[in-house]
Amino acid sequence: MNFKNKIILAPMVSVNNIAFRKLCSDYGADIVYSQMIDSVGFVRGSRRLVDFYDEKNLISQFLGNDPKSIVESALGVADKVIGIDLNLGCPHSNVVGRKCGSYLMKFPKRIGDVVKGLVKNVDLPITVKIRAGYDKGHINAVSIAKLCDGEGVSAIGVHGRARTVNYMTPVDYSIIKKVKESVGVPVIGNGDIFDGESAKKMFDSTGCDSVMIGRGAMGNPCIFDEIKIYLKGKNSKKVDKKRMFLRYLRYCKRYEVAFVEIKKQAQWFTKGMVGGGEFRLRMNDAKSVDELKEIYSEI
Ligand SMILES: Cc1cc2nc3c(=O)[nH]c(=O)nc-3n(C[C@H](O)[C@H](O)[C@H](O)COP(=O)(O)O)c2cc1C
What we know:
Blueprint: E1 7-9, H1 18-26, E2 31-38, H2 39-44, E3 58-63, H3 67-77, E4 83-87, H4 93-97, H5 108-121, E5 126-131, H6 141-151, E6 155-159, H7 173-182, E7 187-190, H8 196-206, E8 210-213, H9 223-231, H10 241-254, H11 259-268, H12 276-284, H13 289-297
Helix pairs in contact: 1-10, 3-5, 5-6, 6-7, 8-9, 11-12
The protein binds flavin mononucleotide.
């Protein structure tokens, strides 16, 4: 696996279950990331988010700050994935409070220890997903990226926002460009990609090797093919969202996805549809997959 010219599904907790990842892969995602999995919980035996079966393009993302737990977790899934990612970007206070995710951007030495442990002990490509920095006063993506490159990672994902910058502020392409110019390994540009045009903008503005899409894929897994077609200069065909949703339901059945999760995703699929708001309200009250199908059939 190389990390060049890839259109990638970003890790998203509460979104990237097996059915959604499969659907994204069917619609062109070259690589899919798992939800972030807590390495401490994993080592203690929790497998709640480890819904790994038969994917050929899955990278498992782990959260943590203890090299031993992260290596043990990575080895625990190594036969089911094509790579391991270290989460250095999660901004949530409960994660930062545990000195994990974006908190680690302030502690290069610890990042080095974790990455070194992974590269030495796990016979798979290791990637990191970083942010521009911890906050606006500490924009250090370049030095963290260089450190990870030196420790032997296979690619570096960069979300071009600091931890304290919310989605209302546009992604900062310049920091991703600086990272790209500073390291030898492939760089994956991430942030604000919602269609072919914004994907091209990410490639052109930063020189990144691959792009990673988060929110733009929610309820819209066909974005990966759409981007590929756009980048080839062609017009994409309209995708039948109903068919896509039925395919999603088949995966949910096959992998026994919980109904609450199915319902949440079902609502995202109505995003941008005429009358979508009303359908979402009705879906709220649905009690079964058949009810969801019935509501969908009226759309
Ligand atoms: C619902 C949701 C869940 C997320 N979960 C994770 C996660 O588990 N790990 C991670 O590194 N980033 C996570 N992110 C951040 C995304 O991977 C991505 O970096 C960010 O949304 C910017 O990309 P976008 O503009 O394409 O959404 C999450 C984002 C969203 C919206």
